[in-house]
């Protein structure tokens, strides 16, 4: 119940309280999880602490809240985490209060958490900034000055501020931690160095962006300890940047011919069938891809992998009813069956005539009748 009512809210780090019974505790958790204002109270508690006193849990709570705001949208997770560790909370209680004067030296980068402000420029233009918008310094230690006068539009405007020195250090440090992969003078992939724990043992580069071709190629490359789920993430999201799954399928069949990549290609296909079988079941081209892949495994005598693939397909396949009409009783069937009681196993479709009515109806090799 807690999860369904909370949506994607991270409940780790909620303050513990003494209660009379476990039942009361459960009810209180559900109440908290379903109340967005309670969530904001927890965030405010974390913000009001001195940055030096913030725990890892506090930073996770802030991270969960801040990543929803446009100001943090284009930042990597590690940048957001570092900003959350040093941000300071500020509240302006009254509407119409001047926050910054024209020509005033800027000393921080700020994001609006609640309320809105209006900037009146010397040329008469005005601009309104609201929740999630940012203002202030760029990531440089050079002196910068406010253009226009900024006033609060409503009561209780809330901000988080990051001192210029911290903002500059964090954003520039990240630039140093970036590894750019270039091909023919163009950047095709960007990776970021991350450390997952303080011991320094779990560290490496995680892919944060790349061209569609380069991301596809990375499926069969070595993945670092900090990026163990690249294949799963790719298979979950490729629909947003590739027009057809066969773009991946063709590459996998091509790479299978390279003996050094064969095991990696097979792992990708097994994960794909296990996690997203609907990509194959409703797509004739992808069904043919799977048949060709099975034939390749058979040809290379990779019996163990073939069994795993068959188990995965059998577990994920859905029952369906297919109706075929024959022009006459004597007309041959447009498919071949194998098996039966004399063989000691079920009846299966061995092959289907390409382009026949059976293909159109969705009958496939491997179907059990």
Q: How would you portray this structure in words?
A:
The structure is a single chain. The chain is of the alpha+beta class and 369 residues long. The chain folds into three domains: 33-173, Jelly Rolls (Sandwich), CATH 2.60.120.10; 211-316, Up-down Bundle (Son of sevenless (SoS) protein, Chain S, domain 1), CATH 1.20.870; 335-368, no CATH class. Helices cover 39% and strands 21% of the residues. It has 14 helices and 13 strands. It has helices at 2-6, 22-33, 36-48, 56-66, 77-86, 164-177, 212-217, 230-237, 246-256, 262-275, 278-281, 284-299, 303-316, 357-361, and strands at residues 88-92, 98-100, 108-114, 116-120, 126-130, 134-136, 149-152, 157-163, 178-183, 186-195, 203-210, 335-340, 345-352. It comes from Nyctibius grandis (Great potoo). GO terms for molecular function: guanyl-nucleotide exchange factor activity.
